[in-house]
Amino acid sequence: MPEITVAIVEDQKPTRDGLARLVERTPGYHLTGTFGSMEDAIPALAQAPVDLVLSDIGLPGMSGIAGVRQIKVDSPTTQILMLTVFDDHDHVFEAVCAGASGYLVKDTPPDRLRDAIRELSAGGAPMSPEIAHKVLSMFQRLAPPREEPVRLSPRELDLLKLLADGHSYKTAANALGLSMDTIRFHIRHIYEKLHVHSKSEAVLKAFRTGVLR
Predict the structure, then answer these.
(1) Does residue 171 sit within a domain?
(2) pLDDT of 76 strictly over 70
(3) How far apart are CA 127 and CA 133, in angstroms?
(4) How far apart are CA 213 and CA 210, in angstroms?
(5) Residue 112 within a domain
(6) CB of 33 within 8 A of CB of 7?
(7) Measured in Å, how far apart are the chain's first and last C-alpha atoms?
(8) Where are the beta strands (DSSP E) in the chain?
(9) Domain tally for the chain?
(10) How far does Cα 5 stand from its chain's mean position?
């Protein structure tokens, strides 16, 4: 089974080095690069997309949230785990809407962080308990009325159903007998049609609009 590729975006060198050691010591994962800013990370990741990005929010220059949006445009299947000192509603909501698939506070213990990396790469959405509660309450409060269904192709619908069932992009590709390049093609079209930036947003909106039942 191929290793899961990981990149780190963190401006504080001690934290960046600690995250690098954690990834390097986790079997099945390959660290492809570390970056001190989104300005350095985005061009490199556009040229060589990775499976998973660990990113801080409070970065110098371009923020982590703005960077996440761009990474998801360049590589829709890249999963992004936000690591931050922020746990307020605004930052949580912005990060999720930008396309982050997980959100942990920086004092998360190393073992929990390692588990979160594995969970995210398996198609999950790891969050610190206090953040998960805020995300749930925000969606309950801010969810708009039911919208008109969006028309997806049969293949796009098959893929979305697998994602809703908990498949990762890789396991969905295996189930459908498709390459990852083809999966990326379909994911990009699903995101465009649903006007979303992440897998969790796509599944949520598909159920809300009646695309999935």
Answers:
(1) yes
(2) yes
(3) 9
(4) 6
(5) yes
(6) yes
(7) 33
(8) 4-9, 29-35, 52-56, 79-84, 102-105
(9) 2
(10) 14
